[in-house]
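We give this protein:

***
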Amino acid sequence: MASSVSAQYSRPITGHGKDMPSSQKALSQARLLHAAFLTTIFLSIFVVHLAAIGERPVSLSLVAGIGCAAVADIGVGFMLRKQYMNKAEQALQVEFDARKALAAWRLANILSFAQAETVTLFGVALKFLGASWKIAGPFFFVGFALLLLWTPRLDLPLSSGASSPPRPPAL
């Protein structure tokens, strides 16, 4: 989803979200969760640093297997994100159900974050097995890059008084 929240949600955010529309609240919650997932990457690096595990040779077949699993995980992440974003779009265009659309949108974001974090955890596993940063580092980088790519954006017109027809979300 490539654009920002529409101007119809320009009311100030106050207190505990009492004055916030549900779509704006969902976006705020998703961004908070996103920030937590980004933080865990840095915490993983910190834990690996504290563990101070010496470098040891790691089997090339193990590294290749973990690499293949990471590539498959990335593919699953893109597939799930697209599937649930399409469900959100369909809920608005066909059923006109904003709650169902928001639920699918939230699920798409959470699943995406989890898949990106899994790639990072493959890097953590490699570091604990004794791999060098040259081998494990790309897993951390790719997990971080995926989280940045999948930053939550809400461009679905979820207000009941929307005058324009629903736009399809862009990935």
